[in-house]
TrEMBL record:
Pfam families: DUF5917 (PF19314), KELAA (PF19311), RAI16-like (PF10257). Residues 185-194 have a biased composition (Basic and acidic residues). Residues 580-675 form the FHF complex subunit HOOK-interacting protein C-terminal domain. This is Retinoic acid induced 16. Residues 169-216 are annotated as: Disordered. PANTHER family: FHF COMPLEX SUBUNIT HOOK-INTERACTING PROTEIN 2B, RAI16 PROTEIN-RELATED. Coiled coil: none annotated. It comes from Mustela putorius furo. It comes from the Eukaryota.
């Protein structure tokens, strides 16, 4: 680097030294790093960087850089790297390309003699899965993605490889010649100032390379920066895969609309990302325990491997890989340009949700239904992108759900899934109920509207022309219900447990929250209650949890602009038949069988109903939590949550008479469920466990009613969540 040194002469001398190695060397086993090739490449790079710093006119290429471009040195290096001669040459070529693109500030990728060998090198890297040059390949793609991020117009230069290769097919020249002819040409050029890298000179140098390095036709056109990155994302080396994913993320987040459109329309980006997701799903074992799937938490694309402290099970690594890639797809869609995000979300919906997942959800095999439903629940739990959530909701519920009729058959995926909640297999029922519970926690208005609200609009569950009662308590006349016996009324509404007299309604016309709370607390008769014997504090233990969940739910739905109260009824409007919808009908049917169902199933049913009751919509509150509407003004033939609970209590009072020592056995079962005493099989155990769940559920509903409408204070107005996150 002395000022007296001629940079161009030194640059040419180093390049000549590299080419002469191939002319004179006969040892094909010496690794490239033990030759002088790495040193000469470094000298050439240093000369280019130094020359650029000495340039007085910015933006002009120096003599050395012009020589590199005119003599197609990068093309030749790419050919040498492909031949992998000497061994390890490919690694040296990747490193040289990465460094020259990163350190030389002059724009290079616009030149044909740069971006064409770059395309060839990308195809070269993607041909050998698990190759020894993965580290160098991912460094190379990192430089390219950074350059594209700085100048999105470069995207077309790097991704146009397919057209370039198709043009090359007709004019491709052979790369091998007889060794005698090549040696004559090489000797002629050895005495010149620089080796001639014209087509003839290139053929002479290529004659030293194995003939089998010819590119296979029909494959090269599909290999681009995108497919190279996807190939590196599949690497078994965690750091390589992570860096490749970060590079692809950088690529899809380009700010230029034109580049984003080109990425969608002229590259295989959306297709290859979705194909890998489908491949990972199809590689999962057919038998996965839903409990194992639900327990595998904390999987992210940055840390796709399952935590080592969790219990191992067959298929754990494959499951972690699939959930990790789904999380990556979700993150890609969140961070990508809008054009890319929309296209990628639609590709995931069409190619994965509809073509791969839906047949498994509707399969005749119970194991297939069980596994696919549990996997879909895990995916929903991870989903954060609003765009992908919209596609998932459209996949599950349809694009425009309408109020259903009681005799409608299961013609949609949603109808089939609701049917699975009332399946003969309790395990399928529980797993599908978990899916809906997860869906209800997603911030998409179409979920609660399609499942519940579209059937409650119009308030046809309220009888038209019903007189307003003077007092809610005075009109609570249950003797007319055939399910209730004298014993039930005497035990459940004794003076000590009757709610204190309070105004029937608040100033805004709603039933007083005190009466709502006490209505649920007094619903279960005293002989069926056991929490007081274990020094529990009744529904108060649920208030803290309910308050937190209600705050979270209110924050989630705040942007939807729900009204604060129900629309007043028109007394002159004729009554219309009311149907609560297939979803609520299924939940009410399940709730009516709470005394006959397994404990775990009852827990899941009540959990979903609690999630519904938390929504701060006036129609949901009125229909699910207002006993006054439910018992006094409920339209003929209609069911509601409270009316279902009342009939369950009536059924319970008749069953109690047939169970000897009911109270003692009930207390023992509660202690077993709490782990205070060893579990042992008892007579009527399903019934007794159902009673425990029923008591706790009533307390939970009372707590939800309390936190939704405090006795003294306005409605809670909470800030909406941050945009862009689910």
């Amino acid at each position: 680097r002395e000022p007296s040194i001629d940079l161009l002469e030194a640059f040419v001398e180093h390049w000549k030294g590299i080419t002469h190695y191939y002319i004179g060397s006969t040892d094909e086993n010496t690794p490239a790093k033990k030759t002088d090739i790495p040193w000469r490449l470094k000298q050439m790079l240093d000369i280019l960087v130094y020359e650029e710093r000495q340039q007085t006119a910015a933006g002009e290429a120096g003599p050395c850089l012009e020589y590199l471009l005119q003599h197609k040195i990068l093309e030749t290096l790419c050919t040498l790297g492909k031949a992998e001669y000497p061994p390890g040459m490919r690694q040296q070529v990747f490193q040289f390309f990465s460094k020259i693109l990163a350190q030389v500030q002059h724009p290079l990728l616009h030149y044909l003699n740069v971006h064409r060998p770059v395309q060839k090198l990308l195809r070269l890297g993607g041909t050998v899965p698990g190759s020894q040059t993965e580290k160098e390949e991912v460094q190379f793609t990192t430089v390219l993605c950074s350059k594209i991020q700085q100048d999105p117009a470069l995207l077309t230069y790097i991704l146009e490889g397919k057209k370039m290769v198709s043009r090359k097919k007709s004019s491709k020249e052979p790369i091998t010649l007889p060794r005698e002819a090549a040696s004559v040409q090489d000797k002629d050029h050895a005495h010149s100032k620089a080796p001639d890298m014209s087509p003839c000179g290139a053929r002479a140098l290529s004659s030293q390379l194995p003939a089998e390095t010819e590119e296979p036709e029909g494959v090269v056109g599909e290999s681009t920066l995108i497919t190279a990155l996807i190939g590196l994302c599949k690497s078994k080396k965690g750091r390589v895969a992570l860096k490749a994913q970060e590079n692809l993320l950088l690529l899809v987040s380009v700010a230029s609309p034109a580049a984003a459109t080109y990425l969608v329309q002229s590259s295989p980006c959306c297709r290859v990302v979705t194909e890998h997701l489908c491949q990972l799903y199809q590689s999962l074992p057919p038998f996965l325990d839903p409990a194992d799937i639900a327990a595998l938490e904390g999987i992210s694309w940055r840390l796709p491997s399952a935590p080592s402290d969790e219990a191992s099970f067959p298929g754990k690594e494959a499951l972690a890989a699939f959930l990790g890639w789904f999380d990556y797809c979700d993150h890609l869609i969140t961070e990508a340009h809008t054009v890319v995000a929309e296209a990628l979300a639609k590709a995931v919906a069409e190619k994965f949700f509809v073509e791969i997942l839906q047949p498994h959800l509707l399969h005749v095999s119970e194991q297939s239904v069980l596994t696919s439903t549990a996997l879909l629940t895990a995916m929903l739990r991870q989903l954060r992108s609003p765009v992908l959530l919209r596609e998932a909701v459209a996949f599950l519920l349809g694009t425009d759900p309408q109020p259903a009729a009681p005799d409608d058959g299961p013609c949609t995926l949603c109808a089939h899934l609701i049917g699975h909640c009332d399946h003969l297999s309790d395990e399928i029922s529980i797993t599908t109920l978990r899916l809906f519970e997860e869906l209800l926690q997603k911030p998409h208005e179409q979920v609660i509207h399609g499942l519940v609200l579209c059937n409650l609009e119009g308030r046809h569950y309220v009888a038209r022309g019903s007189p307003e009662p003077e007092s809610y308590e005075d009109t609570l006349d249950l003797e007319e219900d055939p399910y209730f016996t004298d014993g039930f009324l005497n035990n459940s509404f004794q003076p000590s447990t009757k709610p204190p007299r309070a105004p029937a309604t608040n100033s805004d016309g709603k039933t007083a929250v005190t009466e709502i709370v006490n209505s649920f607390l007094c619903l279960v008769p005293e002989e069926a209650k056991t929490s007081a014997f274990l020094e529990e504090t009744g529904y108060d233990t649920y208030v803290h949890d309910a308050y937190g969940l209600f705050q979270e739910c209110s924050s989630r739905v705040a942007p939807w602009g729900w009204p604060l109260g129900p629309t007043p009824l028109d007394p002159h409007e004729p009554e219309r038949p009311f149907f609560e919808g297939h979803f609520l009908r299924m939940l009410f049917d399940r709730m009516s069988r709470i005394l006959e169902q397994p404990y775990s199933l009852n827990l899941q049913v009540t959990s979903v109903l609690s999630r519904l009751a938390l929504f701060p919509h006036p129609l949901i509150h009125e229909y699910l939590l207002d006993p006054y509407i439910n018992l006094i003004n409920l339209a003929p033939g209609c069911r509601s949550l409270f009316s279902v609970l009342v009939r369950v209590i009536g059924d319970l009072m008749q069953r109690i008479q047939r169970v000897p020592q009911f109270s003692g056995k009930l207390l023992l079962v509660r202690k077993q469920l709490m782990g205070q005493v060893p579990g042992e099989q008892l007579d009527h155990q399903t019934l007794l466990q159902g009673v425990v769940v029923l008591e706790e559920f009533c307390k939970e509903l009372a707590a939800i009613a309390f936190v939704k409408f405090p006795p003294h204070g306005p409605h809670l107005h909470l800030s909406p969540p941050r945009e862009g996150h689910v």
